[in-house]
């Protein structure tokens, strides 16, 4: 078993090193190419802003490296240094009912992780983001967000754990199937609940007020053949100057949300191109496709986990004195992070493919290539985005294609 444990340890270290190597590649590529102003960005950015973007990306990467080192060190000590064994044995000694024990087991881990990461999240928000002019949040609002997030996470996790472990108790031989069914139903339920219950806890959502823009939106949605209940403005500016837009909800509760920062910085035609892009995701059924693929993967993962948890292999491998269902879940999650790493580019590839499809849809119904390109340029400029990510880094990290590639595809679409 010692040999196998050593192999697991080395495999995890290799995954971590591979992640750091990708960061190194990306920064090296940025330093080599990042001083060039792309033709489509001329007039929008200058050399000073380009240098600022480089500094922002480099500082974030270095901070992520330090944060990751700390996080990985704690994880390795927890799993390989005996802390999991001690914690697991202590929980087992309490001899609480199965569901209560599982609930406490995972909530303590959640709270410990939250406490550990607080200094890093604070530094990210009030030092780095503030240094580059993004942060508008106050300490009071930040702390309020923190406890709200923790409260909501506690409620959701408690619900999932309680029902999940109840299923395990009720159906010890088929729990993998019923757990999968439960998570499928829960995922769909959250698509309905998030826009109306969770999101308003953190932000205020108001209908877009500009009558001219409203008229343009109605015409656009009609042309796209999509019924959207509402297009909302979100008060993102109380926390950040970053700009964004997103499509949320499902069925009759789907809505498009625009950051107020985006509405302030974009022209009407640019906003409509953003909306057309978001509508494209819905029209092309990207959310449904993602859900189907995710659930196929999920049922395979749950079944494999079920088969592994029927044995004591993981308990012996990590030298745990007590065999508990909860410790096995933790260990499977850890091993899963190692096994899944090489496959990371696969879902991201399809995500980027969906973004291209949404861009194409946006162009098809607006025929406004100029506004689409200027929108991408402004979004990149306002968010200090990396214009020159290394291709391999992008494959492992980017859910959206690099902006220069998106612009290139838009021009090709126009010429086709």
Describe this structure in words.
A four-stranded mixed beta sheet has the order 1-2-4-3, sandwiched between helices. Strand 3 (245-248) and strand 4 (255-259) form a beta hairpin. The chain has one domain (1-416). It is built from 16 helices and four strands. The protein is globular and about 65 Å long. With 416 residues, the protein is mainly α.
Q: In a nutshell, what does this entry contain?
A:
The chain has 416 residues and is mainly alpha-helical.
Structure keywords:
416 residues, mainly alpha, four-stranded mixed β-sheet
Strand proportion: under 5%
Helix tally equals 16
**Total discrete domains:** 1
| N-to-C CA distance | 60 Å
> Strand tally, please?
4
Whole-number mean pLDDT: 91
> Which value, in Å, is the CA radius of gyration?
24 Å
Largest sheet: 4 strands, mixed
Low-confidence blocks of residues: none
Q: Tell me, briefly, the overall form.
A: globular
The neighbouring-strand order within the major sheet is 1-2-4-3
Pairing-aware structural class of the strands and helices?
mainly alpha
> What's the helix-strand series?
HHHHHHEHEEEHHHHHHHHH
Helix content estimate: over 70%
SSE inventory with pairings:
Layout: H1 2-33, H2 47-80, H3 83-93, H4 98-131, H5 139-170, H6 175-202, E1 205-207, H7 211-224, E2 230-234, E3 245-248, E4 255-259, H8 260-265, H9 268-283, H10 286-309, H11 313-317, H12 325-340, H13 345-366, H14 369-382, H15 391-397, H16 403-415
Helix pairs in contact: 1-2, 1-15, 2-4, 4-5, 5-6, 6-10, 7-9, 9-13, 9-14, 13-16, 14-16
